Amino acid sequence: MARMDNQALFLTTSPRTPAKMIPEIRLLHEQFEGRRWNSTTQEEFIDSLAQSDFFEGTGSPSDKAFSARDRINRAPKALGFVDLKPHIALTDAGQALISGKRPQEIFLRQLLKFQLPSPYHIENSGIVGTFYVRPYLEIMRLVRELNFITFDELKIFAVQLTDYRKFETIKTAILAFRTEKEAHKGEYKRFVNNVWTDAVMSIYSDNINEGRTRTRETTDASLKKFISTKKSNLRDYADACFRYLRYTGLVSIVHRSRTIAFFADKLQEIDYILSTVERKPVFVDDETAYKTHLFSATQPALYVDIKENIVDTLMRVSVYTRRELSGRTIESLKDLRDNIIQERKEAVITEQVEKIKSYSLYSEIMDTYNEIISNDIFDAPLMLEYNTWRAMTMLDGGEIKGNFKFDDAGQPLSIAGGNMPDIECDYGDFVLSVEVTMQSGQRQYETEGEPVARHYGQMKSRTGKNAYCLFIAPTINPAALSHFFALNQINIVYYGGKVQIIPLKLDQFMRLVDTAYNYQNDNRIRPNPLDVQRFLNSAIEQVTHSENETEWSERIQNCVSNWLT
Fold first, then answer.
1. For a 10 Å CB count at each end of the chain, is N or C smaller?
2. What is the pLDDT, as a whole number, of residue 57?
3. Is the four-CA dihedral 51, 53, 59, 61 of positive or negative sign?
4. CATH class of the domain at 359-562
5. Cα 282 vs. chain centroid, distance in angstroms?
6. Helix 478-487 vs helix 549-562: angle between axes, to the nearest 10 degrees?
7. What are the residue ranges in the chain where pLDDT is below 70?
8. Buried b (16+ CB within 10 A) or exposed e, 93-110
9. Taking the model in full, what pTM does it have?
10. What is the fold of 2-295?
11. Distance between CA atoms of residues 69 and 436, nearest Å
12. 350 exposed, middle or buried (CB, 10 Å; 0-12, 13-18, 19+)?
């Protein structure tokens, strides 16, 4: 049970990417089902997680029990996928999530049932009566009635929707904000920051007036620090909300404008939800009844639970007749629908690849990199993977596979899993893995050092080909640089011998892409796999000519500058 002492909406933020909770819930179920969820099992869970092939992290943390609670007590418990009392158990919803064909469907049901307050989330005495809402349901209603919602609108206004009866007030405030920002186009960032600051001051006026401005994990009680911390929290909630809603498959995100909207062909499903799902929280004081409600894998009912609706959808998107579809079960109809959607998605991606290979998206790709560097884009880690896949595809000459997930519209949905490279390039005679990260500082080395080398070794073993790896980040941490410098010189059987991993700063990689673009413009000849391999060999050869990692980094810069000259 969590005690709420907040005056703005809070939403589950761990894990940040919904798909990541599935293997962790499966691990909890397979190894700990039936045991009590206490410090012993929590520490054992983290140890097991650290040994799993899907884990992305720094190994076992110092406080294992806290780390386990952070992973399981938040989204998996709050959304009803696991029951932790009196012992660890997978719920019907959890079983459907980890074993069903359509995890997005069950995830949507659970988002719609998440409510504040609940037996899991009880208001502290000082804020009793603040919350009376199903947050995701009401935010979906905002998106539908406003046609779209921006990240700024969510972090400033939607987080104030603590009671569903405030819906019209929040909607009106967003519309007024849209009108007012038209007068501040030349200073939009400053305008938004001022509106955001005013909102935080209003939301937390009681704390500020009573001098309660010291936040956890700091001794700084200044108003400036308080506002900064609250803004950071609201930004995290908005980010998580975008990600969780997107995983349902109902919404699309325009990453560059940081806007979400519903897919046009999903509006009937949205309208069904908004007209049938109860807006009021239920069983607030009855944990047993609340669990029964929350753990159900079939409630609330969705538009796609009605067979006739699936038939109508199939008749719109295919050549099937009603008679041909009438004898099928609803599950077989859903399979048929999913197959058609997958074929359409693959066609969209194929068309996109052709445009990329023509270099017609060069400017857009470079602009996206600049937005990533300036942190002016939603979900920068995902966009870095997606944009680098586009850049490698544009270089052409090989089979380029991005391991991130696409949505039904062929847009990036979620990053690659933890047991594979972000991007795999097969050039016939050799292969290249590409790993990207937004991490910087010591955490870059801790989270990326070993996995990058492991993915490289697995790819080399799997293909039996000469293998290379590009490790790309906005900045390269010195510890990561020294790690790869050493690995390139040590014969390690686990990695298939000496590795060939080349760390590149993002601006260096952008220089390679720019050089390729200008080369094909000037010479009417596109770079080919041999050109790519020459650069890779040249950068690796510099290891033997360098006394240390710093000199190697400088020599890599020379290789970048001289590529294709």
1. C
2. 59
3. negative
4. alpha beta
5. 30
6. 90
7. 1-5, 56-60, 217, 255-256, 418
8. bbbbbbeeebbbbbbbbb
9. 0.86
10. FokI Restriction Endonuclease; Chain A, domain 1 (3.90.241)
11. 29
12. exposed
